[in-house]
Amino acid sequence: MKKIFIYFLGLAPFISKGQISISNISLRDTTKNELYWGCENIIRIKGLTKSNDNFVVKTSIGKIEEKSGDKYYYGRDPNVKNEMKTDTIKIFKKGKVVYSTIFEMKAIPYDKFYFQFGGKKDSVLSVNEILLTPFLKFTTPSSNYKDYKKIDYPTVKKFDLTILSGSQKENTYSITVFGGVLNEEHKREIRKLQEGDKIVLHDIVIESKLFSSPKTYDKKIEINIK
Questions:
Q1: Between 167 and 217, where is the model more confident?
Q2: Which residues contact 91 (CB under 8 A, 6 or more apart)?
Q3: What pLDDT digit, counting tens, does each position of 143-170 carry?
């Protein structure tokens, strides 16, 4: 497999393994050797100081490039599948390895995602809770990766909203919500809801740069009004 690497100048002529450390500072716990697929990882390489010697940084399955100072971008090589479990970052001097460390490849747990409506995962909400946070949001459980704002989270492209009212739970309102956010018309209908009424969200379509095309979530989300 082709290795992608960078050259950089101006490092110490004599270094030992004890002087060098490589860490992922995009993590909550930077003592863990973890790299995240599909995310921007900022790597800090400490213990290398300026001189006239050449050093080479190599990664087995990713790609790395200098950012500033002792910081480097580590990212996924699009030609490598996510099935790889580890990656090794090595520092070479004159063709010999002077330091290496193994990182475990991790992924944001998209398979454990859930939707929040009205700001909560709850299946029972009040009218006020829905109106305060009038949108459907794709959410995943937290992980050791801390720079969540840099993740291409899937977003809700559209969903169908159906209101079931009265003792017979009759369909009194049904509409497609685009962009995942309720507009003023939708809010007017929400304000009419009484305790015991039900909202059903279905045919939810999500999109992301991670997907080749939008995906449809085939389960219904039922919310009872309290």
A1: 217
A2: 20, 45, 48, 55, 56, 57, 97, 98, 99, 100
A3: 888 876 566 678 899 999 999 988 777 8
Outline where the chain has alpha helix (H). Answer: 127-132, 184-191
Of 53-62, 108-117, 143-152, which range is least confident?
143-152
Positive/negative CA dihedral, 131, 133, 138, 141: negative
Cα 105 to chain centroid, rounded: 14
Quickly tell me which residue has 């369909």 as its tokens.
Answer: 171
The span from the CA of 8 to the CA of 49, in Å, is 11
CB atoms within 10 A of CB 13: 9
Full-model pTM: 0.61
SS3 category, 64: strand
Q: How far are the Cα atoms of 62, 184, 199 from residue 188, in angstroms, in the given order? A: 51, 6, 14
DSSP H/E element including 177: strand 170-178
Q: Span 10-27, mean pLDDT? A: 67
C-alpha–C-alpha distance, residues 11 and 97, integer Å: 15
Query: What does the alpha-carbon distance between residue 39 and residue 41 come to, in Å, rounded to a whole number?
Result: 6
What is the spatial distance between Cα 35 and Cα 192, in angstroms, rounded to a whole number? 49
Q: Give the span between the Cα atoms of 217 and 214, in whole angstroms.
A: 10
